[in-house]
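Lecture notes, unit on binding sites. The following record was shown on slide 14. It pairs a sequence with 6-O-phosphono-alpha-D-fructofuranose.
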Amino acid sequence: MSRPTLTEHLIASDAPPALRLLIETVAQTCARIADAISQGALGGVLGDAGTGNVQGEQQKKLDVIANDMMLAANARNGTLRGMASEEMDDVSPLEASDAPYLLLFDPLDGSSNIDVNVSVGTIFSVLAAPRQPRAVTAEDFLQPGRDQVAAGYVVYGPATMLVLTCGRGVDGFTLDRHTGSWWLTQPGMTVPAQTREYAINASNARHWFDPVKRYVDDLLAGKTGPIGKDYNMRWVASMVADVHRIMSRGGVFMYPRDARDPDKPGKLRLMYEANPMAMLVEQAGGAAHDGTTRILDIAPTGIHQRVAVFLGSREEVERAAAYGSD
Ligand code: P6P
């Protein structure tokens, strides 16, 4: 059976030409990021960059390299009015004052895993630029996740995969590292409604608020508890890797807010982590909320705002929600 390439798949879809070009540009940039990552120590790209980002995090060399590659490749394709990145304090407006889209991304999510050779990824979100032909400001990026035009991630794992939605389902593509082509390998991805697998950083248990504590205790109780089935646990500490597992076989991913900083709504960022992942999961039949609100309905107040995340298999996410919010 001949598989379509990403290009052929996008042409066959009803995606507008500018969106097709944007997605192709992001995909080809991620193929180059995959190549840089695969060099490991041989490429001199491991370790800290010696700089920090707006999140207060130590940047890895590859954080900066991936960010620069995404900016350079996407600044010239004529589809974007501006870009925003986890690695940049402010948005980056572009000259093209009538280009149709805005691109937001986490160029290298999970980069703390880079130096120990564990899967990392790139997450991206596409929003519509203002209708009026004018330069954009940060305000133009503050759109709820339900307004995303497209969303996706590339997971740099044993295989390099692109998982993409343009609002009509989710498709998985695998990179042929020899030719640089992306091939449709998982058309119509769906998240099973039920699961026996959950993902949470259990080392934070003593900081969780009561609803999460009671829910996880019931997961741990397995067959002997109120849920009545045994569960398995996974935590890669790379959201793209954990979410890709859920997109592939189901599960629930949780990063709740906790008592370490009650004013901090969560660790993960809404605009370029939670929103694109929530769009993908919902398009695949799953669910995503922050403990009380559907993630895609959250009205953003800042480019780097954080949010609690519960996402994955719909019945399990709904079960978690039923325990109440903290
Ligand atoms: P922790 C990576 O830094 C990240 O933003 C996500 O990719 C990941 O799910 C989470 O943080 C891991 O957080 O506290 O377990 O290291």
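Take-home: The chain has a mean pLDDT of 95.
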